[in-house]
């Protein structure tokens, strides 16, 4: 498993009551899980070839701490954030966390399906009429440029 993107001390400093000594193992596990979730969403690992942490952007570390803090406080409800929440094993990224993370690392996790208009806006009023003897339809009334007459 890759190292967590934040430390238990970082998490303890941000929680209202800190992390009790008896909860260090649970806090470490929450940070590991939150780091895995963030890495999966971002598509980045922030480790070198030896598996040691490289420079982790501050916003990424902050998001890991937010996710782990929610897990430690047990202040979340299944699907609590509504719009845009992604939940994995009890941990989840809120929609705004996903947007901040994607902006920080230059990714976009939105679906890549959309409609694209294929006309230029000015409708072509050309009629197409059948050709005697068959074949392709012949444009009739077209006034734009043609390959043989620029």
The overall strand count is: 4
Helix content: 25-40%
Please state the CA-atom Rg, rounded to the nearest Å.
28 Å
Supply the number of helical segments. 4
Largest sheet: 2 strands, antiparallel
Strand order of the largest sheet: 1-2
Q: Give the strand content.
A: 5-15%
N- to C-terminal distance: 65 Å
Q: What is the average per-residue confidence, as pLDDT, rounded to a whole number?
A: 80
Provide the succession of SSEs: HHHEEHEE
Runs in which pLDDT lies below 50 for 5 or more consecutive residues are: 75-82
Give the overall form. rod-shaped
Multimeric organization:
single chain
Structural class: mainly alpha
In terms of topology, how is this protein built?
Blueprint: H1 8-14, H2 24-42, H3 58-73, E1 86-88, E2 91-93, H4 95-105, E3 127-129, E4 138-140
Antiparallel strand pairs: 1-2, 3-4
């Amino acid at each position: 498993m890759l190292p967590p993107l934040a430390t238990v001390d970082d998490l303890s400093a941000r929680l209202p009551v800190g992390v009790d000594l008896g909860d260090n193992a649970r806090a470490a596990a929450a940070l590991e899980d939150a780091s895995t979730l963030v890495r999966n969403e971002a598509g980045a690992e922030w480790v070198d070839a030896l598996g040691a942490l490289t420079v982790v952007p501050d916003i990424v570390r902050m998001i890991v701490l937010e996710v782990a803090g929610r897990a430690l406080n047990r202040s979340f409800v299944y699907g609590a954030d509504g719009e845009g929440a992604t939940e994995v094993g009890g941990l989840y990224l809120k929609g705004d966390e996903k947007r901040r993370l994607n902006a920080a690392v230059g990714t976009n996790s939105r679906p890549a399906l959309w409609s694209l208009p294929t006309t230029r806006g000015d409708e072509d009023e050309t009629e197409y009429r059948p050709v005697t003897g068959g074949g392709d339809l012949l444009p009739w009334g077209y006034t734009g440029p043609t390959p043989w007459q620029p």
